[in-house]
Amino acid sequence: MDTIEQARRTTWKVLVVNFVAMWVLIAISVLAPLGAGRFDGWWRIGPALVAAVCFTWLCTRIMRLILDRRHYPTKQVAVAAVFAVIATGLGGADPFGWGFVALCWLGVATLEIPKSAVRLLQIGTFVLCLGLSTLPWQTGTLGVRAALTGLHVEPASWQTLAYHALSFGVFCLIVPPSNRIWVWIWRLAVEAHRGREAHTRLALAEERLRFARDLHDLVGHQLSAIAVKTELAVRLSDVDAGRAKEEMAEVNRLTRKALKDLREAVRGYRELDLAAELNSVKGVLEAAGVRCEVRLPYRDLPAGVAPVFAYAVREAVTNVLKHSTATFCDITIRFTEQEAELTVRNDGVARRQADDLGSGLTGMSERLAAVGGTMKARLVEDQEFLLHAVVSLPIDG
Questions:
Q1: 105-134 burial string, b = 16+ CB within 10 Å, else e?
Q2: CB of 343 closer than 8 Å to CB of 387
Q3: Where are the transmembrane segments (predicted)?
Q4: What angle (nearest 5°) sits at the alpha carbon of residue 151, between those of residues 145 and 155?
């Protein structure tokens, strides 16, 4: 499961907790009077339960639409409000009982709307719930409070009105912000993920530009010289065949050199590329949110080692970006008189990913074998992946 999906599920679970609490309070409100042997309101509770079930089902759809940011489901929110009024009015508008249905609606309806609209819905819900609590059949339906304290008061008394006003007022103030802040955190996570992807694409684009710039510097001059000498050879072919032959021989030499340099650039075998490659991969990893540590020897690497390790570093970091959800990557290069060693360690690799890393590592192993080197890639700890390349010194050729 990726980070964004995990954040979405966490936000969803937090929003659903309100509905779990709602059903717990409804259950207590229904069962508590039965335990006291004084319940005669089935004609109201049956339709209220049906309305509560429809309300819950509809609100789950509303929350999914809001989290997916398709659109604000105005019609569904209005229908859910009708179910909430039916359930609250018939069940008994106790804030710690059936009245919590209306509060759950308020928490869902205020997601992704302007603050001014939130204030209006808070006031409207408060007034509605307070009005429903004065209905004639509210006597003895004070839910959790009645079940725990045994206190029964007339719905028109000032004590009941004060209790309802205080409770509904507090809930109407705290429920919308608590839900909205979780959705806001979810939005921040999505934007951060998009920003991370944008930084990665930018770093990769910069790397392509760097490679194109290096390629131009490497063969651009030679190609320009080939064009000039070819044109000169054509002009001399009629007046000085010997000179024209010399120019064409020079063109042949320049062409072979340009082809050789081009192949070396494409294969990553340019010796001066190791430092540039390390700087490049460090920038790409950090842009992708991966902490990168590079440890190099104090002395210059022996001849022939830099181009081999440059390609290995490039392929290893490519696998880090493609096949893992790494948070760190350590690159270490060291050497002795007998051998040079490269290690690349990162976390966030599942075992199935470690078993299927494509053909890149195979190609790297073949390149190292061509200069008498070896390469091993394996899981070393829980979700940590290690690439270990060793080249014997001195390198032949």
A1: bbbbbbbbbeeeebeebbeebbebbbebbe
A2: yes
A3: 12-36, 42-60, 72-90
A4: 85
